[in-house]
Every structure is written in structure tokens, then in C-alpha cells.
Amino acid sequence: MGVAGLAGALLAGCAKQGATVQGQQIHDLYVLIIILAAPVFVGVEGALLWCVLRYRRRRGSDGRPVPQGAGGPRSLAVFFAIPTVLVAFFFLLGERTLADVQRREPNPAVELRIDSFQWQWTFYYLNEGFFVTGRTLTKVPVIALPVGAPVHVRLEARDVVHEFYVPEFLFMRNALPGRPNEFTFTPTRIGTFRGQCAEFCGLHHDQMRFVLKVVSQADYAAWVDQQRKAAQRVDCDPTGPLRLVSKDNSWNTGCLAVGASGPFVVSVSNQDAGIEHNFAVYDSAKRRRIYFQGPRFVGVAEQTYQLRPLPKGHYYFECDVHGPAMSGSLLVK
């Protein structure tokens, strides 16, 4: 059994280390199960081979079956007791690890709301006050998190079932429409990790990817400051008609501008066949106040909306179906 244990340890060493506290706990459980299962595997296979060789048909035999004997109560009790004890032990280990992985951090350093939809992700940094979003077929979202800091995630889906998966985290969670899924993880290794949707969710499922960078605390603070400044620098000129065109679940522009002289017209062309879009204007990405909300309509089609005058300021527009992935700034000058 010493050889079996050594083989199990060597095989366990090939398993990928977790890049989070929770992922490492899962990795350690894998290793322990492999080490404990290796002697069982060797013992069962050894007994099987011994039976095959011991009771094989030999040259010159008369072809009659080899005498066999039924086990007594003691052997049957041992036969059932050993697997029962092993399964019970593995069950307790698994439940303890599951409880550790699912434990909520009472004071997370980062609060994320992750919005999944066909076929991209939006990451809302709730405490920092901004979001990072991808655009289907054109832009993969890149986010940053501080190393060693607990991150609490509220995972949501806008349309169908998706699945949040980062291979190095040894962890995945379903995003279910109408049923938010919450979990916590703590990155332990600086580096760049690629994530994806692990649930087949439609035509461009393979493009539903994101990049997660784990950085130092100082680099994270600098990245947050950079994101905030970039959101404040959005600008465009109020010239020409206001026209939005949706193609592959993305708008043709992220900025509209009008003068503060009176009502204005916005034309919206939906070039995504069979997919719903709409046009809505809010006070900000937090959508506390609605200034305009047009009805949803299926492409290929076009709608024209007349909006009432708005005070000078910076407003937020989006398609309510796809959220920040189809959003932009409306500037009233």
C-alpha cells in the first residue's frame, strides 16, 4: 500500500493549485481524495487480477467449474463496512470544504455585481461607483481585483442560464434568471486569469469571455482611479441627427449630444434579426431616475422617439435588454 500512496501523492501533485483561498481548499480536498483512493484502487485491481490468474482455465483441466464458496456473515460485514466508512469519511470532508468555500465574508474589500447576458458580462464595482462591460464580438471586459482581499459577488442573468468560470479558481457558479447567486472568493496570486461562460447559452457562447487581473493593493487603487477618470472624460459634439444603430448587440456609438434648447428626436435602428432592443435614458448607470423608456421591439426594424427637453448635464442611455453592454452617455449642452 506504500507504493499506492506514493503513486496517489505523485498524481495529486499534477493537480492545478487554486489561485484563491477557496480554490486552494478545493485543491487540497482533491489531493486528499486521490491519496486515499489510490490504495483502494490498487487493492481492488490487485484482487481482480489475482482472481483472474488464480482461477483461470488451465491446460488439461476437465472444464468443470472451479469450486467456489460463499462468504460468511463476518466477511460480508467487512465487505460492507469498509466502503461505508470510506464514503462517510469522504462525505464529511466534502461537507466541511463546501461549508468553507460557501462561507460569506462579513466585510469584503470589493463588492461586485456581475451581470451576464447573451453574450457578454458587465461587472459593477458597487463601492467604487463604476462598471466595466464587454461588447458582444467586439470587446472582452478586463477587470482588476486586489490580491489578498475578499471579494463578494452577486451573480445575475438577464436572459438565459450562464455560468461564471475561472479555471484557476477551481470554481464555477450558475447565473440563473431571477435568482441571484452570491459567493465570496479571496485571490491569493498576482497574475492574469481568463474566465468564460461554461454553460451553453446560444449562438456566440464561445465569445462570452472576460479577463481578470489580480494586482497589488497599490496597482488596484491606481486602476480604480483610472477607470473613474475615463468615465468623466466622455465627450462629443451636438451636431447632426441623433441616430443609434444596433448590430451584434452593440451600439454604433457610445456618446450622443444635444443642445439644451428644446425637445429632440432619437432614431434607433435594430439590425439584430429576431432580437429585442429598446432605448432608455436615466440619470446615471445606477438608474435611480428614468427620463425616457421606449418600448422593446424586435429587429430588423427602426423606431423614432421624441424626448422632452432635458436640463444641461450628463445622462446615461442603454438598451434595457442588454444593459451596460449597450450603453453610452447622453450629453445635454
Can you walk through the features of this model?
The chain is α+β, with helices and mostly antiparallel strands. The protein folds into three domains: 2-50 and 77-102; 110-232, Cupredoxins -  blue copper proteins (Immunoglobulin-like, Sandwich), CATH 2.60.40.420; 242-332, Cupredoxins -  blue copper proteins (Immunoglobulin-like). Helices cover 28% and strands 33% of the residues. The chain has four helices and 20 strands. It has helices at 2-13, 21-54, 73-102, 217-232; strands at residues 110-117, 120-125, 130-133, 142-146, 151-157, 162-166, 171-175, 181-185, 191-197, 209-215, 242-246, 255-258, 264-270, 276-277, 280-282, 290-293, 297-298, 301-307, 313-319, 323-332. The strands form five sheets. It has a five-stranded mixed beta sheet with strand order 3-2-1-5-8. Strand 19 (313-319) and strand 20 (323-332) form a beta hairpin. Helix 1 (2-13) packs antiparallel against helix 2 (21-54) and helix 2 packs antiparallel against helix 3 (73-102). The longest helix is centred in the N-terminal third of the chain and has 34 residues, at 21-54. The protein is elongated.
